[in-house]
Amino acid sequence: MRRKGGSFSPERHRRKTQTRLILSGLVVLLVVGGGLVWAIYGRAAAITAVLCLLGAASVFGVLWLILTLLEIWVKEEET
Predict the structure, then answer these.
(1) Is residue 41 part of a domain?
(2) How much is the pLDDT for 4?
(3) Vertex 16: Cα angle to 35 and 27 (nearest 5)
(4) Structural domain of residue 66, as residue ranges?
(5) Mean pLDDT of 32-46
C-alpha cells in the first residue's frame, strides 16, 4: 500500500525521528524529574527543579539548533 505524498525519504524520516526523540526526552525529563522532586521535597523545590531542567534543556536545544544549521550549510555547499 502506497502512502500519499510520494516515496520514502530516509533523510526526512531521520529528521522527524530525531525531533520526536528529543522532544519526548525533554517531556520525560520534566515530568519524571519534576514529579520525583515534588514527591520527595515538595512543591517549591519542584518548581525550582523544573526551571533548572528547562534551562539545561535550552542549552542542549541551542546546541542542537547550531548543529542542524551547520548541517544545512554544509549540504548547500556540496551542491
Answers:
(1) yes
(2) 67
(3) 5
(4) 25-78
(5) 94
